[in-house]
């Protein structure tokens, strides 16, 4: 059986990825603070493997413990897909007014967690073929008013992905690392963005219009585009894929 580990699988894109992969007969390891009960019930009804592992992805120790447990549960596996999907957009604020705790949370969840997860699994599963999919953002490629921390962490995720892929190519390793930019989706993150202030985020009216004019894609649509890409077997190590080029 093929397996997938998905962080942030309780809602949004993570839940949509998990749902699609269950339909492709993947075993799912869900990693998030809270379990998605609908996902668990769906897996039980279809007699599919879906195990939830509660984890605080802002805490390095929690990551180490959780993913060590997952490796033990996995045992020997020929192929594994790892979706570093969990992310936070806060703090949405200008530099000079950033809340320290929110900045640390952003750095830990968006950047430190994918690095630690990838490092641990690369080390522990050296004999398996592991495909790491790091969810990034268009914000990684351009500055956005009020998003200095989010832009910075996502830009760093892109560089980490490319550097890690280069190392695998150089050492002739089995692992593959790609980035995936999902574009604008109708998720809780978009709601958080729309709830910010004009002073903190100058583009707030544009983002409100995305919702009002029906321009936000569903998480399922984006997840399907990503899974179709992965199932095609044509991904390029180190590439940063954008959903707009896949749909």
From TrEMBL:
An annotated GO BP: tetrahydrobiopterin biosynthetic process
Organism from which the protein derives: Robertmurraya kyonggiensis
Uppermost EC category: oxidoreductase
Family matches, as InterPro entries: Biopterin_syn/organic_redct (IPR051721), NAD(P)-bd_dom_sf (IPR036291), Sc_DH/Rdtase_CS (IPR020904), SDR_fam (IPR002347)
Keywords of the record: Cytoplasm, NADP, Oxidoreductase
Pfam family, one: adh_short
Source species, domain of life: Bacteria
PROSITE patterns documented for this protein: ADH_SHORT
Family: Belongs to the short-chain dehydrogenases/reductases (SDR) family.
Cellular localisation: Cytoplasm
UniProt EC number: 1.1.1.320
GO molecular function annotation: sepiapterin reductase (NADP+) activity
This protein's GO CC annotations: cytoplasm
Protein name as annotated: (S)-benzoin forming benzil reductase
Membrane-spanning parts: none
């Amino acid at each position: 059986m093929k397996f997938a580990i998905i962080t942030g699988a309780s809602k949004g894109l993570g839940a949509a990825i998990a749902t699609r992969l269950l339909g492709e007969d993947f075993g799912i390891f869900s990693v998030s603070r809270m379990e998605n009960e609908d996902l668990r019930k769906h897996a039980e009804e279809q007699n599919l493997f879906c195990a939830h592992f509660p984890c605080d992805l802002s805490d390095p120790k929690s990551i180490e413990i959780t993913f060590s447990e997952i490796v033990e549960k996995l045992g020997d596996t020929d192929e594994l897909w790892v979706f570093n999907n969990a992310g936070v957009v806060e703090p949405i604020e200008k530099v000079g007014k950033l809340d320290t705790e929110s900045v640390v949370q952003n750095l830990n969840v968006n950047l430190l967690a994918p690095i630690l997860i990838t490092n641990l699994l690369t080390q522990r599963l050296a004999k398996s073929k592991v495909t790491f999919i790091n969810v990034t953002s268009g914000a990684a490629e351009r500055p956005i008013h009020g998003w200095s921390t989010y832009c910075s962490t996502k830009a760093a995720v892109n560089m980490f992905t490319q550097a890690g892929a280069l190392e695998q190519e150089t050492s002739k390793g089995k692992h593959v690392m790609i980035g995936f930019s999902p574009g604008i989706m109708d998720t809780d993150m978009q709601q958080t963005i729309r709830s910010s202030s004009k002073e903190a985020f100058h583009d707030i009216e544009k983002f409100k219009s995305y919702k009002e004019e029906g321009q936000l894609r569903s998480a399922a649509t984006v997840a399907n585009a990503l899974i179709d890409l992965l199932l095609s077997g044509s991904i390029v190590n180190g590439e940063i894929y954008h959903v707009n080029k896949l749909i």
